[in-house]
Amino acid sequence: MTDTPIPRSHRPLIMGRRGAVASNHPLATQAGLDVLRAGGSAADAAVAVSLALGVAEPHMSGLGGDGFYHHWSAGGGRSQTYAGTGTAPAAATIDYYKSFGIDVVPGSGTQLDGLGAFLRVSMVSEPDGMFALLERF
Asked: Contact 85/66 with Cβ under 8 angstroms?
């Protein structure tokens, strides 16, 4: 065993006094705090964080995927979650995938060689989750 210290994260700590925002990227967290400071709601901040993550971490987040949102109402003592997850396309059948030489419906999108297209396993629905959250709050 060595005395080598465990390295600390390079991510800055961003804190607020009357609100909290957390995300995978400090710039997205800052976007959420900026929305709260401007008088926006927690739902507004969550959407700002989601959109900022699509820019800051496009390989991990974005409008083309799924979105999950959690809202806590301090006044009502109630927690609600919103799942912007897509359903399978109507054409996503075993026979459809077999027509492309794929024997099993893939667990993630599959690019077709030479066609430059993807066979999706679910429909884009993150915006649906954002809109539902904003409509409610």
From this structure: yes
pLDDT tens-digit map of 2-52: 666 666 666 666 666 778 888 889 899 999 999 999 999 989 999 999 999
pLDDT of residue 115: 52
Express each pLDDT in 11-22 by its tens digit. Answer: 666 666 778 888
Using the 8-state DSSP alphabet, how is residue 92 labeled?
-
**Which residue in the block uniquely carries the two structure tokens 């006044």?**
75
Single out the residue of 58, 60, 32, 34 nearest to residue 46, CA to CA: 32
pTM: 0.69
Confidence of residue 98 (pLDDT cuts 50, 70, 90): confident
4 secondary structure, DSSP code = P
Distances, alpha carbon 121 to alpha carbons 13, 61, 88, 92, in Å: 37, 17, 6, 7
- Report the distance separating Cα 26 and Cα 113, nearest Å: 37
Report how far residue 25's alpha carbon sits from residue 6's, in angstroms, rounded to the nearest whole number: 21
DSSP-derived secondary structure for 14-57 = ---SS-----SSHHHHHHHHHHHHTT--HHHHHHHHHHHHHHH-
Strands 78-84 and 117-119: unpaired
